[in-house]
Design brief:
Helices cover about 5% and strands about 35% of the residues. The protein is elongated. It is mainly beta. The protein is built from 1 helix and 9 strands. The strands form 2 sheets. Strands 2, 3, 4, 6 and 7 form a 5-stranded antiparallel β-sheet that branches. Strands 5-1-9-8 form a 4-stranded antiparallel β-sheet.
Length: about 220
């Protein structure tokens, strides 16, 4: 499915409320791309103070069919020993970013938004920049947009969208060796075993089993 890269740079924030009155606050931002039940979440490193700066770059792939229904959410959080706490958030429809970015060419558009708490109170100002890039499709040899497979040849497509070399059949024979057929087993009378009452060539018959009873051929004494 076609998608467009969305480049985000989380720049800075100012005038944030510090929940820790004694210690210096450490703030990071969780950035989420939300489309229904699909959520892609990334976060920045921590920065100190009520006016933190990150300059952290983030990339999101946005499907063309989801631009009108997706939302970009920034949640500013303060790191604490007993558990991190949300300072506030900024929620923006992705279609709004596309509309404001359409007239800026290849440069990122920098914007400021108020950080809102869950109760709707302003908790500071958040600054970031964004840029929607054009779709990049692989180019065929005939000038088309997609690679053309050769009939009868199995190709694999690499990450750049270009066909790789055709797959060669696997062989268990090492190079330089020839597969000779196995010799046929010796045949005796058309079967694997000699027929009853016969002896294979080059062998001697087994002696008869000893006879039970009194041996009358014992040598008589003087």
């Amino acid at each position: 499915m076609d998608s467009r890269p969305l480049d985000i740079t989380v720049i800075s924030a100012s005038g944030l409320d510090n929940f820790l009155l004694v210690f210096k606050m450490k703030v990071y931002v969780v950035v989420s791309l939300i489309n229904g039940k699909s959520v892609i979440e990334k976060k920045t490193h921590m920065s100190n103070g009520r006016n933190p700066r990150w300059n952290h770059r983030i990339k999101f792939p946005v499907e063309e069919s989801a631009i009108q229904t997706s939302t970009l959410l920034f949640v500013l959080r303060q790191h604490r020993m007993l558990g991190d706490k949300d300072i506030g958030e900024v929620s923006i429809p992705v279609r709004e970013l596309l509309e404001t970015n359409s007239g800026y060419g290849s440069t990122e558009h920098e914007v400021d938004y108020q950080v809102q708490s869950t109760r709707g109170k302003c908790k500071g100002t958040f600054t970031f920049s964004h840029e929607f890039r054009e779709k990049v499709l692989p180019v065929r040899a005939d000038g088309g947009s997609h690679p053309v497979p050769v009939p009868g040849t199995a190709y694999m497509v690499n990450q750049q969208g270009m066909p790789a070399y055709p797959q060669q059949p696997y062989s268990t024979t090492p190079p330089g060796y020839v597969n000779y057929p196995c010799p046929a087993p010796p045949q005796y009378g058309g079967t694997w075993y000699p027929p009853p009452g016969t002896t294979p060539p080059g062998t001697y018959p087994y002696p008869p089993p000893p006879q039970m009873g009194y041996n009358q051929h014992l040598q008589q004494g003087p």
